[in-house]
Amino acid sequence: MIENKHYFISASLALMFSFDVFSNEPKVCFFIKENYQGDSLCTTQGNAVELLPTDWNDRISSISVPHGMSVTVFNNADFSGESLTFKENIESLFSPKWSNLNNSISSFKVRVAACFYESDNFEGESICLSGNEKIDLFRLSNLSYDQHYVLNPLNDRVDSIKVPEDIQVTVYKDNDFSGDYFVLADDFYYDELEKIGMNYAITSIKVSQQEYFICDQHCVVKGTYNIPLGHAFGDYWLDDRVKYKDVLVSFRLSGEDNYTINLIDGSLIKVIGRVVMLIHRNHQENTFMFELSERSDTISFLLRFNGGYSEAQFIESVGTEAVYISPLVGSLFDFGLINENLIVNSFSNEKLLIINKVVLTVEKDDVRSGRSVLGIAACWAVPMINIYNYIIQGRCNQVDRFVSNVKDFFSGHNDKILQVSGTARPLPRKNVEDIIAAETALENININNNTSTDVEGRLTHITVDMHGGSLTVPATALACSVPMKEQLLPQLRRSRDLTPRCVEWTLNILTDFTLLFGDSIATWNAENFGRVIERILKMGDTGYAVVNSEPERRLVDNVREHLAANADNMIHMKTAFNFSQLSYADYLHHQTPEEVVHSPIIAQELPLGRYELALENFHFIETVPRIRHEGRWVEEPDLHFEIEVISGITVETQAARGVVLPVINEWRQIYHQINHPELAGASGKFVHTSATANSTAIEAGLLVSDVAQSWLRTSHDDYIYVVVRLRGQVISITMALDINEFDTGIAGSLTNPQYVLHPEGEGAVRGAGTAAIRALADHLSKKANALWYLMLSVSHQLSSKRKWALSLSTNFEL
Question: Which keywords label this protein (predicted)?
């Protein structure tokens, strides 16, 4: 208790107790006498006094507290000593219940509150509500509903709202906290309430107070809005038992929106009108643009965090019907920080941004490890199926996998999903009669019409940032049989965690060789790769005068440590380099004459796209050959491509491979002669190149012919070859790889050099590549354990158009 001391009232204290400044705002008032008599001091929400003035210290006998407000009083200065919190009037502190505080109050805090005004600009009659308080303006709690008693003249008359920091206000159109509602976290003026249809419409109100507030549903964004992901996920964010942290942020789509979402990986999502742009700050040249449907009313962003790898995609919908599902855009980020935020910035002055719902979930494992979990390929095509179910209704619903108890989540099966934030629940399954229509619509969206005979894949994944390893990271994943997206990328920036151990040294050797020799395929090729490795093992150096000695030192150290006297590792390393060559050849294959062709070292920085062709319900049709005749391409329905699929264990495929190998050897020699004319003398042949020949296609043929020769000589059980002949002559060979139980990847395709060097020449043939893919898709779809997807990857400066389609004749990833 403070007595017999003299203090002066500061300017701020005087202002706090001024009746003029806050004349229209409810106040907590302190009286010297009981029953609110005598001198008084009044103050508004959010104010606190750590030591009352001498004239008031230890002299308060009654307190008036407006409805919805709260004050805590202390019997010592500095908010210490015994305390009590009051939410209603106290007419006498002489009461035995409060007697220990009568004439004993030395400091107080008035809890922060939101205030509601009948006029614009926070003027006129008002009420204030502290956190966790609510009010129904339509009736008093002790009166019957039938009386329709209006508690306060503010019913349907609120024109402005003042919302302090860390306070959230939920305003409802109807009584009993029902009807349309919105959550507000900023001050709102009349015109802003009008934009969301809440001017002269608010009937009941709830107020909450959360420092780390995460929107649940129907939140209005003004300016900047933070979603504290790290705090919301809490211990799950860094828990090694939790593999996936998934986020759904769903917005109303007005067509006049203008906002951005800053992601934690350095990416930026920008929405302007009906255009969505995905931008990575470190690779702004790779901006992906999507045009939205005019009929869509909702856009939902799905985010996944797995270790140090994140993915984002969006779904536009009409109600609960999906209209378009974007590719997943993946990127690396610095994992380990717990204060990660999503930041939403709204720039529109015409339309206020509305967040429909925010949901956070965690999973322990990838449910796609078994086909029975998801059942159909259409569901498999939605990677974040758990949070997808909160916005799209259909057969893919996974409601049975959700648990609400943490103990059940960690002790149960790995396919369980735990919702850690948000009150929204997964949508129920559709009625049986609606399932077929919904499933067909989803399949058409995700897999480009499942019953189509097309061999065009849909772009499903884009990896923007691979730590400068767009060629070498996928090659390492394939060589080490490690899932790239699920295992390698999440650990890539924490190399100490890479498993199996072959991943680290394989990636290091490939990366450093590319740094040293990736300026040109004249040095970045299989022949020079083998020569450099051999030189290192014998002499301890690369044999080149290199500018950057550090990559050379690392390359020498890794080669000598892991490849010396280890034939298996040597074969493994050559296989890995083959895969990186195929990736680069694939990049070359898809460049147009107008585009700048980058060297392998630059291609390492390009985004990686994955295209997929669903095999479920694939229908095979024969491809009609097209022949160049008198300057025109003519279909020849009387001619038929003869297709041979070579697949199985190496012993069984040896004879068939032996028949094709001499042809590939000859093609390889021709491709090499183009780049090294001096070799023509040894063969007695001279190769003429047409002026219309594509130089990048020739370079791609050079690389793929090296790999095709190597594969045919030393094949593996999971390699597949599709040989296409016309009139007995080999036209092309397509190579593929069984990646896992559900996926096969296209490794590369090699065409008879005659049709590459003279693409417009008389008698040139087209259609062999399409015929090969159709035959491969048909072959795979008929297997006993039918695969679901034919996959490929393209290291490429991807188009910024909304949708992509690409003939499946290129490379792949795990």
Answer: Repeat
